[in-house]
Design goal:
This protein is of the alpha/beta class. It has helices at about 5-20, 40-50, 50-65, 70-90, 105-110, 125-135, 175-185, 205, 215-225, 235-240, 255-260; strands at about 95-100, 115-120, 140-145, 165, 195-200, 245-255, 275-280. A seven-stranded mixed beta sheet has the order 3-2-1-4-5-7-6. Mean pLDDT is about 90; it is low at about 1-5. Helix 5 (about 105-110) links the parallel strand 1 (about 95-100) and strand 2.
């Protein structure tokens, strides 16, 4: 992976949230912090997007360059937000965000303000994030970890608290052993802890042409030296998680969460991305 490419990927997701925040109505996400992570061109585009013709032009450009990414990314963000709230409502006492990137849930979701939130990311991305945010809030802890040198066991996390783990946009870049090691780490936390994670249907790695946007996306991430390396067949995930004492509660595709959160919108989106929600049993 190139040194700066992870930050670029995080910036695209921040751009989507910033654009959604500018929608005059029916916005799925409100994120006043996202614009801080954008370069000057993206910031200007975001501010101009309040003008309908310019907004439509920006959407066409995004759809051409990253087909299917915007609608799927925004619906996924909203879906995960609501899953986090479910976990909070069921008594979790700590939030851990793995590979946090430019995630802003700790700041924009009011129901997280009274909970400790621990963000874990590569030192480069974490440093950029703290610089862009400026004043940091006391309930958020930013931990730096280079997975090439250390593992999650090297961090001092309180494993006695019921915890919800958010693991978004990461598993498709890893090898299976690294994924299994993360689930073994989560297994150390109390019964009633949750994990929310994204993954891709492994078929997109073998036959990307069968999915809208699949071929272009895999070509682009390879150019960034961010090749996708792993996916699951959705049908086997439940059994896979059982070895880590995790019970699968939900497993929905981008088609399903787009249909749930943006039924009236016409933008085409990914079909191969999925969100899973599991509880520690």
């Amino acid at each position: 992976m190139k040194k700066l490419s992870a930050s670029r990927t995080a910036q695209y997701m921040a751009l989507f949230r910033a654009l959604e925040t500018q929608r005059p109505h029916d916005k799925l996400v409100y994120d006043p912090y996202a614009i801080n992570f954008l370069d000057r061109v993206f910031q200007i585009a975001t501010r101009l997007s309040v003008i309908p013709p310019i907004r439509r032009m920006i959407q066409r450009i995004i759809q051409k360059r990253i087909p299917g990414a915007y609608s799927s990314g925004i619906a996924r963000t909203r879906y995960i937000d609501e899953l986090v709230q479910q976990a909070v409502n069921q008594g979790i006492q700590q939030v851990v965000i793995l590979g946090a990137g430019f995630d802003t849930r700790a700041l924009r979701l009011d129901f997280l303000r009274l909970l400790p939130v621990i963000e874990i990311d590569h030192p480069n991305t974490s440093a950029v994030k703290k610089e862009k945010l400026g004043t940091l809030t006391p309930h958020v802890q930013y931990l730096q970890l280079d997975f090439n040198e250390k593992g999650l066991d090297d961090l001092s996390l309180n494993a006695s608290l019921p915890t919800v783990f958010i693991w978004e946009g990461v598993t498709n870049y890893l090898q299976e052993e690294a994924i299994a090691a993360t689930f073994r780490f989560i297994e150390k936390f109390p019964v009633g802890s949750f994990v929310i994670f994204t993954y891709v249907d492994e078929k997109v790695l073998r036959e990307p042409h069968t999915y809208y946007g699949g071929e272009k996306l895999l070509y682009d991430v390879a150019r960034l030296e961010e090749q996708w390396t792993f996916g699951w067949k959705p049908g086997i995930l439940r059994k896979y998680l059982q070895q880590f004492e995790l019970e699968l509660l939900e497993d929905n595709s981008a088609v399903e969460y787009r249909r749930q959160y943006m039924p009236a919108r016409t933008e085409k989106g990914y079909e191969f991305y999925r969100v899973a929600f599991a509880v520690r049993k």
